[in-house]
Every structure is written in C-alpha cells, then in structure tokens.
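TL;DR need structure tokens for one chain.
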Amino acid sequence: MKLLIIEDERDLNLSLTKLLKTQSYSVDSAFDGEEGMDFIAVSDYDVIILDVMMPKMDGFTFIQELRQSGSKVPVLMLTAKDTVEDKITGLDLGADDYLVKPFEFGELLARLRAMLRRDNREVLTSNIQLGPVTIDFAGCRVSKNGQAIELTAKEYEVLEFLARNPGVVMSRDKIREHVWDYDYEGDSNIIDVLIKNIRRKLDESSKESLIQTKRGLGYVIHK
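>> reply
TL;DR here they are.
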C-alpha cells in the first residue's frame, strides 16, 4: 500500500516515514501542501496523511482542492489543535478521519487499517484465497496448500498489490510507482525479475500461473 505524508514538522515527517516503511508501506513525503499537490499529480496513493497547519498551503486548502479535483483518496488529518471546530471543518471539507497530536504510532496504524477497510471492503479483508494460495494481509504471510511460502519483502508487496486489485491489469510502471517511493532509481526490469521469482515460488506443479502476463500491458491476477 502506498501512502503520502504531508507534514511540515520535518522530524515528525521523517519519523512517520521511517516507521511506516517498517510496516511494509511504500511512503512518499511532502513538507507543505503545494509539494503534496505535485506528488498527487504524478502518483496514486491509498491514503494521504495530512497536517493542518503548514506553510504555502494549509491542510484545509489542500483537501478542498483535492476533493474539487474529483479525488476520493482517503485522507487522515493531523492537527495540534484539539478543537471541535477544526474537526468539523476538516470533515466537512472531505477528510475521512482526524488524529490529534501527540498520538501513539499504534493508533495511527489502527486508523489507517480502518480507513483502508472502509475504502475497499471486498479486497481488504484479513486474507484472500486464490486457488491453493492464501494471502494473509494482516500478517503479510503467503501459503500454498497450507504450506508457508517465503517471499522477500518486495516480492510480497508486488503480490499483494496485484491481489488487492483482482482482474485489473497493472503496468510495470504502475506496480513500480505503488511498491517503491517516488525517488526510486533501480533497474528497469526489476518488476519482471520479482514476478519471475514469485512465480517460481508459487507456481511449482501448477498448470497455470497465478500471475498472468498481458503482453504489452502488464500483469494481472484473477480471483
């Protein structure tokens, strides 16, 4: 899952980015609303974590422009102001949830999970069954016929992204954007290598690959 943090407090921004990456999220960081707009113009996100008080463009203005553009991406607003008026303003402008600073990281994770479930209940259940393959989203675990399959972190993230979008053909660029941060500069064929490794681990003795190739378009998983 890919997140965008828009927070002008540099230490908090960097700390959240680091901690969320340990939870297998792909995270981009912006330090004001205008920079956040630049990010969403070129990338898709599952959730935006948005501070209210920022230079150049505050959180209220950001979310107002975001919703006016037609975007429905879930937004979790952060604020140091624990006032009813701020909460009402944020929610009325289109925020999905509100978290007052200071907060516990565990609470932030719980809020994110709840927002993601609300956003797409069908594919954001605790696990999904794809033939003999079971993906446990909560535990980031994969098994086949009850036997654990060891995937690297990036192999799992690619598999999860495809599994959360069943029937949707994902291009290599779309997978790369979602699994890595915006400034990733790796090998151009990294997606093909990861897909090959996943297939080697999951498709042994199977007649058909779990991940299908759509020539010239990308990859897809069908339920």
